[in-house]
Write a structure and sequence with these properties.
Shape: globular
Strand content: 35-45%
Mean pLDDT: 84
Structural class: mainly beta
Radius of gyration: 20 Å
Length: 367
């Protein structure tokens, strides 16, 4: 699917008309649920996973595979292991501009893993922000990356694309003058900005520079079966959940939040949500906490993983005693794996009691 020049002009026009006002509030829908605290749970001491490659920056578990993203693509950006033994399978996707190569590594948070027939497909952006489909099943069979381009675009300010179906794309990127973030759908090559998208698009900062708009950014995930999107604020303690058709939208805040988005210098912005994983019945977000409006992530701030169902009900949060930057769950062995990309330490936690708690909480919210 190609975004031609006419479509890009329409995106610019529609983002201007839908982003007129300056707001001092948190990026959210008009009504939001506020929870000053939620139940906390702690974990037993973890096991340190050793003999892993250097340069680890992200972690992902898919079925019985443990994947690591690494900084160096000379031998392959992605190292893959077999669970639960953590046996090395291989390394894939070399650095470069050729077939099956990437110019730079893409984080798993920017990928969408889907089972399509007998193949596990990974949708990810390349260095030019085209949408690529990586057939991981065929890659493991053939020994080298199997790529196919799904969608290309001419807009350099588009952060990402999610393929909703064969004729629909969800896009998000810079809006008017680089001061806002705009979300829009492309259906059969026609742009549509639903009214609830416009609500979130209307928030913007007053100055356009290379940093200011970042206070509006969020980490985004898509639940294919529910057709719902979740956004967690990178610097704002806010979570927005909404569907594509406008039938469901919800904002929630857990604990303190910034007063607004205006005129805050990037160096004073605190980290809020740092990582996001989504699952069938819930999603989990790594939160670093807001001690004050001028705080920043440090080793003094204890991170937590917040578990929330897709209807926006906070379930509980797991308190971690060491810094991490990413995580994932191996449901088969009931294990939580965490990675701190600074120290490159990988821990494995027994997650049995947490999964039992999750099951009970989800059952209760469905009653």
């Amino acid at each position: 699917m190609k975004l031609n020049g006419f479509i890009m002009l329409m995106i610019i026009f529609m983002s201007i008309t839908s982003c007129k006002k300056t707001y001092n509030g948190v990026v959210s829908f008009p009504e939001k649920d506020i929870y000053m605290s939620i139940e906390q749970m702690e974990l037993d001491a973890p096991k340190d996973i050793e003999n892993l490659p250097v340069g680890l920056i992200d972690i992902k578990i898919q079925d019985s595979l443990l994947l690591f993203a690494t900084k160096d693509g000379s031998q392959g950006f992605y190292k893959i292991y077999k669970l639960p033994e953590i046996d090395f399978i291989g390394e894939y996707v070399h650095a470069g501009n050729g077939p099956g190569e990437l110019k730079r590594v893409s984080y798993f948070s920017k990928m969408d893993f889907r089972q399509e027939g007998d193949s596990l497909q990974i949708y990810l952006p390349d260095s030019k922000r085209n949408l690529i489909k990586w057939n991981l099943t065929r890659t493991l069979e053939k020994g080298h990356a199997d790529f196919a381009q799904v969608a290309s675009r001419d807009n350099p300010d588009c952060f990402g694309i999610i393929e909703v179906d064969d004729s629909t794309l969800f896009c998000h990127g810079l809006g008017k003058d680089g001061t806002s973030i705009c979300r829009y759908l492309i259906r059969s090559k026609e742009i549509n900005i639903p009214s609830h998208f416009q609500t979130l698009n209307s928030f913007h900062v007053t100055r356009a520079d290379r940093y200011a708009f970042n206070i509006l950014t969020s980490i985004i995930a898509y639940n294919e079966s529910l057709r719902r999107i979740v956004e967690v604020g990178s610097t704002q303690n806010i979570i927005n959940i909404y569907d594509l058709d406008g039938d469901f939208q919800k904002s929630l805040q857990i604990g303190p939040a910034l007063e607004g988005v205006e005129e805050k210098h990037p160096e004073t912005w605190p980290d809020a949500y740092y990582h996001l994983k989504h699952y069938d019945s819930f999603f989990a977000a790594l939160y670093y906490g807001l001690v004050s409006d001028d705080s920043s992530k440090s080793t003094d701030v204890i991170p937590t993983i917040r578990f929330i169902d897709w209807d926006g009900h906070p379930l509980f949060e797991v308190v971690l005693q060491t810094p991490i930057t990413s995580f994932d769950i191996d449901f088969a062995s009931e294990t939580l794996y965490t990675l701190d990309s600074t120290s490159e330490i990988v821990y494995a936690y027994n997650f049995t009691k947490i999964l039992e708690k999750l099951q009970a909480c989800i059952f209760r919210t469905m009653m």
